[in-house]
Design goal:
The N and C termini lie far apart (about 65 Å). Helices cover about 45% and strands about 0% of the residues. It contains 10 helices and no strands. It has helices spanning about 1-10, 15-30, 45-55, 55-60, 100-105, 120-130, 160-180, 180-185, 220-230, 245-269. It folds into 2 domains: about 1-145, Orthogonal Bundle (Cytochrome Bc1 Complex, Chain D, domain 2), CATH 1.10.760; about 155-265, Orthogonal Bundle (Cytochrome Bc1 Complex, Chain D, domain 2). With about 270 residues, the protein is mainly alpha-helical. It is globular, with a radius of gyration of 20 Å. Helix 1 (about 1-10) packs across helix 2 (about 15-30), helix 3 packs across helix 6 and helix 9 packs across helix 10.
């Protein structure tokens, strides 16, 4: 009864209607892919508390990315209202899995104000990731869910410096024809198309400077491969799952890694 009275006070009759849907949502969980779930109404109160304590200053009380700090941040906080998430293991256009959300909350996003929330208990983390789902209706529709893609292990040639160098050279050729229009020939994010790019939220979509020591998606070959497979929802970074071969994607990952090594060499001079 406690959550019923809370929702009634916060949402009025809408809150009561949401609570009424809870039973049917739970019954339908088995229809979703492994690792996915509809919003968990039992986590609402605790999730809201954790969100207001840790997230509201950037993401805003309405989850629209317009918290007190948002205006001063060069990379704007995510709005959860449209249910669009960049970093996922799921196909392009689909919602992230619970583990995808958990990974972003725990590990943060390099180069942004989204820090690492390693201080959260597992219970608080679960509660807040469930609370995030209440901001968008997308989380209530089965067609928006998908299972995580299956990613192959990195090829063994990543452990052979000579072979890795050759593969990186091949990756550079693919990069110049496929990625340079946005990321630039030097991979510094200043391609010819970069100036006009916008994201789904109407903000400038700056292509990543791939020479940075740490990438927002992660620093391992598998992280780069994953983004090439899934794309970044809401941005001009599309999925290359069907347009590049598996070999080409790994070679691109090798080239991006070589840029990081070049950056280290330049910094040491």
């Amino acid at each position: 009864m406690k959550i019923r009275s809370y929702l009634s006070a916060f949402f009025g009759w809408t809150g009561i209607a949401l609570l009424a849907l809870a039973g049917s949502a739970v019954a339908q969980q088995s229809d979703l892919p492994a690792g996915c779930s509809y919003p968990d109404y039992s986590q609402y109160e605790q999730g809201r508390y954790v969100f207001e304590l840790n997230c509201v200053i950037c993401h805003g009380p309405n989850g629209d990315g317009k918290g007190e700090m948002a205006a001063s941040l060069p990379i704007k906080p995510r709005s959860f209202i449209k249910g669009i998430f960049k970093y996922r293991s799921t196909p392009s256009g689909k919602l992230p899995t619970n583990d995808d959300l958990r990974h972003t909350i725990r590990n943060g996003l390099t180069g942004t104000a989204m820090g690492m929330f390693t201080n959260l208990s597992e219970q608080d983390l679960r509660a807040v990731l469930e609370y995030i789902k209440f901001f968008s209706r997308k989380w209530r529709k089965e067609e928006n869910y998908a299972a995580s893609l299956t990613f192959p292990a990195p090829p063994k040639w990543f452990g052979d410096p000579a072979a890795l160098s050759q593969r990186a050279d091949a990756g550079r050729k693919t990069f110049l024809t496929t990625c340079a229009p946005c990321h630039g020939e030097k991979a510094d994010g200043t391609g010819a198309a970069a100036v006009a790019l916008k994201d789904e939220w109407g903000e400038p979509a700056h292509p990543a400077d791939l020479r940075q020591q740490h990438l927002r998606c992660g620093d391992e070959p598998a992280d780069i491969f994953r983004v090439l497979m899934t794309g970044l929802n809401g941005t001009p970074m599309v999925s290359f799952a069907d347009t590049l071969t598996e070999e080409q994607k790994w070679e691109l990952a090798a080239y991006v890694l070589s840029l990081r090594e070049t950056g280290r060499s330049d910094a040491a001079k």
